[in-house]
Design goal:
The first copy, chain A, is of the alpha/beta class and 218 residues long. Chain A is built from eight helices and seven strands. The first copy, chain A, has a seven-stranded parallel sheet with strand order 3-2-4-1-5-6-7, with helices on both faces. In chain A, helix 1 runs parallel beside helix 4 and helix 2 crosses helix 8. Chain A is globular and about 50 Å long. Chain A starts with a helix and ends with a helix. The interface between A and B is large, with 42 and 42 residues.
């Protein structure tokens, strides 16, 4: 245990350096960046599919897809106007700022200048990604109805840091015990500043408030 | 990056030592131990509630509840015949073998001798817990229907190592795009030895096959 402490700090300090660099670069080019974090299967990719469809070229977008393995999610998003970039972490449970830095460095010259918004879909995980600043402007927490309304209390770190919390798969609320006011209250007790948007990418319910947030980030 | 490699090995080696010790201790006392791993909200605790109800004192049980924060899950299981022990990881995304070792060391003398089965409910996370051997006899993967049938392919490590894969929340299958044969095929392609049990703790469908597995572990 003694051995892990200085190293953990070393990893975090290195990550912070890359995150600060990313943030400065994004600010210099006027690019808004959000970091989408939630459990596996909470509906992040389906949300992005519907988000891209509704934004319909209003924003010049880059999507960075973080996955342990496979490019299944990137393939789902291909065909939109957005540029889709896949990062495979090969076993690692979160994206780190260095991966984002290297990805950005690999873009064509002037690409950032011609970009309004970068959405990073992090690895599906409600715990670890919230410990790794990527240099984003805002974290967005994604909690799906089938996961249960008590999850913000059980996994507080993400909700404490998120500017927006999305409650996805609202179309399933009638088939589960999910208590929407209780979920909202738990999130707001942790983080009174968070904007909470219940929505369903499947039925479209609640999507417009989320789209409005994105357009205003420009 | 150079700095992290020896340390990562250090952490893993230390974990393996504790895991081997746990395994030897469990074997010496004839206790079967399973390590239940799945995403937040995949239904692990609801499965355990229904499992305890159906086992109805057929096995002398200890449940170890791993959570980042709170004892909400342990409270849900209180009132059964099983002994419930809560471990809070305070930010860490997985249980490690040392936590299990210390928990077992804190049990009353002869408690292990009077135990048939220990079920460890790991922290809700489809990635990290599968890298930390706890000294269990078997890992059990838990995938819920709303997460989607492609998840075994996206998060292969857990499914590669699990003796049993449970597909939970089967009652929601009619409201989602989840393809049960496809999910089963993906799991079996990764791990042809895995037994796959689709079930619903809510309706009871499929529960008996799982209960039979547990009783046979004795």
């Amino acid at each position: 245990v003694k051995k892990t402490i200085p190293v953990r700090e070393g990893v975090n300090a290195a990550n912070r350096r890359f995150a600060d660099g990313n943030r400065a670069l994004f600010a210099a080019h006027g690019v808004a960046v959000i970091n989408l974090i939630g459990s596996p299967g909470c509906g992040k990719t389906t949300l992005l599919e519907e988000t891209l469809r509704r934004l319909d070229s209003r924003l010049r977008l880059i999507i960075i897809e973080g996955d342990v393995e496979t490019d299944l999610d990137a393939k789902r998003l291909a065909g939109s106007d957005a540029d889709i970039i896949q990062i495979n972490t090969h076993g690692s449970c979160h994206l780190n700022a260095r991966q984002i830095s290297e990805t950005i460095a690999g873009l064509p010259t002037d690409k950032l200048e011609a970009t309004d918004l970068i959405i990073i879909e992090n690895v599906g995980n409600l715990v670890c990604p919230s410990s790794f600043d990527l240099g984003e402007r805002m974290k967005v927490a994604v909690l799906s109805v089938p996961e249960g309304d008590e999850k913000p209390e059980k996994y507080p770190a993400l909700f404490l840091q998120s500017g927006i919390a999305l409650i996805t798969k609202l179309d399933l609320v009638q088939y589960t015990d999910f208590n929407l006011p209780a979920a909202r209250e738990r999130i707001c007790r942790l983080n009174p500043e968070a904007r909470v948007y219940p929505l369903s990418a499947k039925t479209g319910e609640g999507m417009e408030a989320w789209i409005t947030e994105l357009v205003q980030l420009k």
